[in-house]
Amino acid sequence: MIDLYTAPTPNGWKASVTLEELGLPYEVHAIDLMKNTQKEDWFLKLNPNGRIPVIADRDNGDFTVFESGAIMIYLAEKTGQLLPTDEKGRSRVIQWLMFQMGGIGPMMGQANVFYRYFPEKIQPAIDRYQGEVGRLFGVLDGHLADNEYLAGDYSIADIANWCWVRTWKWSGVDIAPHEHLQRWVNTIRERPAAQKGIKVPYDIKLLKEGDDSEEARKFADEARKMVEMGKSKE
Questions:
Q1: Which residues make Cβ contacts (< 8 Å) with residue 170, sequence separation at least 6?
Q2: pLDDT tens, 205-219?
Q3: DSSP code, position 33
Q4: Which helix (H) or strand (E) covers residue 133, if one does?
Q5: Which has the least CB within 10 A, 64, 99, 108, 148?
Q6: What is the pLDDT of residues 137-191, one digit of tens each?
């Protein structure tokens, strides 16, 4: 049994979708980011950085793992799935996983901050981060033109990138120009484990829809307050 401490964010979904794909039993502990639960002392003992997600593996002496990418690698190695064991295959998956962690995630996150959360619209910053997200989408699209998935068979690299890319509307970046990326997003969306994993700990559609509903405005306002206080929620 795995204990999963998480919230409905792209990084949180990386862990829950992976758990669903691997068929591992897990218990969800929802972390209320709006109340800064992830900064409480008990949580900081699990992750000194105060970020979700975190897992504790009861079958391995309650061994804890933080950082979403590290969690994915740990779970894949634990089960022998979603990560090749041969040297080259493993490296390809890790490369595309790092692409998400070093590029897609941070750039989409900054696009969210300047496009959605900041009350002042600093257009050069918006253009900078949306432009970089668009460039990274182009990298994915070009690679997917000749590949069904990012690194051979479906892997943790696909899960990690998909959990972020699927929220493109929230970042204000269109994937319409990228037909191969669209195909890949839609293919993974049809996977039952992916559908279930993105509803953990509860379903939140606004990050995908990118709408201007009252719920979306409230979410953005709460995120803005934490950004301004220097207390990033994730």
A1: 112, 116, 206, 207, 208, 209, 210
A2: 766 556 666 666 667
A3: G
A4: helix 123-144
A5: 148
A6: 999 999 999 999 999 999 999 999 999 999 999 999 999 999 999 999 999 999 9
Instruction: Round to whole Å and give the CA distance between 42 and 121.
Output: 37
H-run or E-run covering 183: helix 179-189
Based on its alpha-carbon atoms, the radius of gyration of the chain, rounded to whole angstroms, reads 17
Q: What token pair was written down for 14?
A: 């990386």
Residue 194 makes CB contacts below 8 A (sequence gap 6+) with 17, 20, 21, 159, 162, 188
Can you tell me the distance from the alpha carbon of 152 to that of 137, in angstroms, rounded to the nearest whole number?
Answer: 19
Q: Is 118 helix (H, G, I), strand (E, B) or coil?
A: coil
Distances (CA, A) of 134 to 120, 122, 174: 22, 18, 8
Is residue 229 pLDDT above 60, yes or no?
no
Residue 172 vs residues 16, 210, 230: alpha-carbon distances, Å: 25, 8, 23
Strand 54-57 and strand 26-30: the pairing is unpaired
The pLDDT-based confidence of 204 (bands split at 50, 70, 90) is confident
pLDDT of residue 205: 72
Opening angle at CA 17, ends 14 and 20, nearest 5: 145
